[in-house]
Amino acid sequence: MVGVHLGVAKFATLVTNDKQTIQYESVRAYRRLEPLLAKEQRKLKRKVKFSENWKKQNRKIQKVHQKIVNSRKDYLHKVSTEISKNHAVIVLSDVKVKSVSKSARGTIENPGKDVKVKSIFNKAILDQGWYMFKRQLEYKSQWKGGEFLLVDHKNTSLACSSCGNRANDNKKTFKDFTCTGCGKKEKASY
Fold first, then answer.
1. Which residues of 1-38 are buried (b: 16+ CB within 10 A; e: fewer)?
2. Which one of 37, 51, 78, 183 is most buried, counting C-beta atoms within 10 A?
3. Other C-beta atoms within 10 Å of 92: how many?
4. Close Cβ partners of 64 (under 8 Å, ≥ 6 residues apart)
5. Which of 32, 31, 56 is nearest to 43 (CA)?
6. Is residue 161 pLDDT above 70, yes or no?
7. Collapsing DSSP states into helix, strand and coil, what is residue 19?
8. How far apart are CA 181 and CA 183, in angstroms?
9. How far apart are CA 6 and CA 92, in angstroms?
10. Are 177 and 187 within 8 A, CB to CB?
11. Distance from C-alpha of 68 to C-alpha of 21, rounded to nearest angstrom
């Protein structure tokens, strides 16, 4: 049995029954090829629209986009295959990517806070391909005869694994956990 935590700094952190952790690095396909994409898009802007040179440049941009998609898909398939081969029961938090990556812009009357930071964070989340990974884990674990479980992500980081105490005071910072019930202390590995 393995629990999978998806993140931005590390793509996935696996926690087994004996508290061992396995981490997978983020592929960052878009981030890696973003400078090349921007360069090719600037070239396109200087071309006469719908000319032959514009069409050629547009095809170059499409190739860069395809390279991003292919490298992300390849990495996700490799990781999901490895996890589904080695674990019979896979537990994943059911994070709604659409709601997590909503814009923080707000409205004119009520503007958002830290819009730039949230925008960068959203781009990093979408670059990971969490939904595609969840879908691949689900069908691959079924192919291999395993079990795939989704856990509601709300307040999962506030519950103590020892005594089950769930309180807002359990998690003061992002990585530090101290149970108010039994006093258990943990540091996040992601």
1. ebbbbbbbeebbbbbeeeeeeeebebbbbbeebeeebe
2. 37
3. 23
4. 33, 36, 37, 40
5. 56
6. no
7. coil
8. 6
9. 8
10. yes
11. 28
Q: pLDDT of 37-88, one tens digit each? A: 999 999 999 999 999 999 999 999 999 999 999 999 999 999 999 999 999 9
Global pTM value: 0.78
Residue with tokens 């105490």: 165
Q: Whose structure tokens read 């690095």? A: 25
Reduce the DSSP state of residue 128 to 3 states and report it: helix
> What are residue 36's phi and psi, to 5 degrees?
-65, -40
Query: How wide is the angle at C-alpha 154 spanned by C-alphas 173 and 141, nearest 5°?
Result: 110
Q: How many Cα atoms are found within 13 Å in the side-chain-facing hemisphere of 17? A: 5
67 neighbors 127 (Cβ within 8 angstroms): no
Domain ranges of the chain: 2-153, 155-190
Residues in CB range of 4: below 8 A, 6 or more apart: 12, 13, 14, 83, 90, 91, 92, 93, 137
Contact, 91 vs 141, CB < 8 A? no
